[in-house]
Amino acid sequence: MPVTLINVFTVPGAKEAEFVQWWQDVKEHITKQAGFISGTFHKSLKPDSRFNYINVAIWENETLYWKAYEQSVTPMKAKLGQLGVDMTPALYHVAFEY
Question: pTM of the entire structure?
């Protein structure tokens, strides 16, 4: 059953350009992982939003997502720490569509 990753980020204003450039590199790796289906990256229209960037990605299943996560989490957290970025990821199933 597919799962949806919703990962919200709080990025300091002075680090936004560096964060976006870094994410461009990260997505190249992520999109090649087994089980990755698709993803979208969102930027808030309000500069003072608590979560000014949101990543939404669809994975074939939870097991494949966690395998990809384990391969990338350590370097990701190190870079996010350098940038002063807070990240809050969570997996979801679609409850219903409308």
Answer: 0.91
